[in-house]
Amino acid sequence: MQLPLESLQLDTQTTSRGNQRRGWRRFWRNRLAVVGLGIILMFLICAVFAPWIAPYGPDAANFSSAFHAPSAAHWLGTDDLGRDILSRIIYGSRGALLSGVLIVSLGMGVGVPLGLVSGYFGGVVDEVIMRVVDAGLAFPGLVLALAMAWVLGPSLSHAIIAIGVVTIPQFARLTRGQVLEAKGREYVEAARCLGASPLRIMFRHILVNIATPIIVIGTLNIGGAILSVASLSFLGLGPPPPAPNWGSMLQSGSEYLTMAPWISLFPGAAIFLVVMGFNILGDGIRDVFDPNQ
Amino acid sequence: MGPFVIRRILNLIPVAMIVLVVTFALIHIAPGNPAYTILGEQATPLAVRLLDQKMGLDHPLVVQFGSYVVNVLKGNLGSSLLDGQSVTSLILTRIPVTLELAVLAVVVSLLIALPTGILAAYRPNTWIDGVSRLLALVGAAIPNFWLALVLVYIFAVSFRWLPSLGWTPLNQGVGSNLMHLVLPTIVLAMPLAAVTSRVLRGELLEVMHLLYIQVARAKGAREWIVVMHHSLRNALIPVVTVIGLQVGGLLGGVVITESIFSLPGMGQLVVNAIFDRDYPVLQGSVLFMALVVLLANLAVDLIYAWVDPRIRYS
């Protein structure tokens, strides 16, 4: 009994690998997706090598050069304390990228196991978990995150926790759907026949097979997560002042919109670019694995 | 239809209960006495004790939760720590502003999404489709607070065509009321239009392969009629669903938009509550918004089941 099943699985795997290789070729021909990848790589390089790339320190205040418009010395101008906007945006990419990845990791880390258990066991367990997920999805994400971040106190890590918790139900819902589809497949049946424990079937067999769509949705969500952090920071629930944070920079600059619009316009452009980068990269990756979309 | 409606409404009860648990537990996720969380670390012991008494924070958690549920069922969401006004009435006075803004935003988003979505599906993989896709990408990625500032800078600061912030009630002049809502509506409508336009395009493309469309073409109907009459009708159902599911996102957007443009709606209430450390108002608003989303989802499900009988029996 074992042999045919093994060969069957091998077979489907080779074809799906072939499909994937063709998919990746399509990805590189998809100019928009490559542009997205380029944007993210650019911000990633900025984040990693910030001290070498940034022309000034992120907190280097210089009152004699406050409110300078963009010039050769300060490409994107200076803020009310004379700090270089470009340098602060470059340093700010660290917090932005890190928070995006951490939020999605938190959401997946809790949401995926919940969805696995819910979908695999079904019955009362499923009913209970899904009602909790329904309730979680009822809250407008930003508003619940706002309230949680306020209760925990303003800081970047609290904003990450708040937004991460809010994304848990989405991943649980998504994973459950995938599990329900995978549960009836032969390889699950085969594993069960071989006496594998539910835990083993869920994590070693099902999870491995449904990982791709979850990772794709995860990538797509990084952009949204960064946007949420920026929104919270804009409302004053991000990291406290001196930290170079895009949302807070935008907020503090909005006071000087009439006399020095560059203070808030450029950090906003950075948020926009990085979110768009993740969105179009996610679209491109989805096309690789699911060309029918 | 009857059994479906009853089943769907019964389903709502446990979910609403869990929503209540979440809004109740919200203040307890921070370590330490909730009164300190509400008042701030530097609160005097006297102030803490007064607040404990006022909000019943000195009772056991079970008792607190019990009275919370009873009060909510009676429509009592507590009272503001600032001036003692009832949270329920604070919310009620702010609904009209938010409702007007949200309805306008949905209408404007449809005005953008219908033409771009239809054109993109009508001519897929052409420059028209490309432009519509680009608009959707921009609409989904643009931070609403940034868009708000850019629009204010262009239309209110540079050209002085529109007021930058503030609000005129509808009964004190429709023109002025609408003028104040132009920019906030655009800001709120953008992400909604982006999603709707892409969903509409996808649905139209899917429907266009179906047999009845081929029949319509075969009998010689003009392409435009096929799109507008035969395809669009069937593609619109998922669009309604998407708009219903976006209510949560819309409420999140309302918080940002109203606080930037100083519109006295629900969103501004939330932000003010955060700045004033007015916890009962924050808690009540969060609960109210979650209930709105639940009811919106219920409405979508019922409409869906009414339009498509297959749903009722699954």
Number of helices of chain A: 11
Coarse morphology of chain B: globular
Q: How many discrete structural domains of chain B? A: 2
Report strand % of chain A. Answer: under 5%
Can you put this structure into words, describing what you see?
The complex is a heterodimer of chains A (293) and B (314). Chain A is an all-alpha fold. Chain A has one domain (20-47, 78-289): Orthogonal Bundle (MetI-like fold). Helix content of chain A is 77%, strand content 0%. Chain A contains eleven helices and no strands. In chain A, α2 packs across α11 (262-289), α6 (141-152) packs across α7 and α9 (198-234) packs antiparallel against α11. Chain B has 314 residues and is mainly alpha-helical. Chain B has two domains: 2-73, no CATH class; 88-313, MetI-like (MetI-like fold). Chain B has helices at 2-25, 34-39, 45-55, 61-73, 87-122, 127-141, 144-158, 174-208, 211-218, 223-245, 247-261, 266-275, 279-307, 310-313. Chain B is globular and about 80 Å long. Classes of the chains: A mainly alpha (293), B mainly alpha (314). Chains A and B meet through α5, α6, α9, α10 and α11 of A and α1, α6, α7, α11 and α12 of B.
Give a topology summary.
The complex is a heterodimer of chains A (293) and B (314).
Chain A: H1 2-29, H2 31-48, H3 50-53, H4 85-121, H5 123-138, H6 141-152, H7 156-183, H8 186-193, H9 198-234, H10 246-254, H11 262-289
Helix pairs in contact in A: 1-11, 2-4, 2-11, 4-5, 4-7, 4-9, 4-11, 5-7, 6-7, 7-9, 8-9, 9-10, 9-11, 10-11
Chain B: H1 2-25, H2 34-39, H3 45-55, H4 61-73, H5 87-122, H6 127-141, H7 144-158, H8 174-208, H9 211-218, H10 223-245, H11 247-261, H12 266-275, H13 279-307, H14 310-313
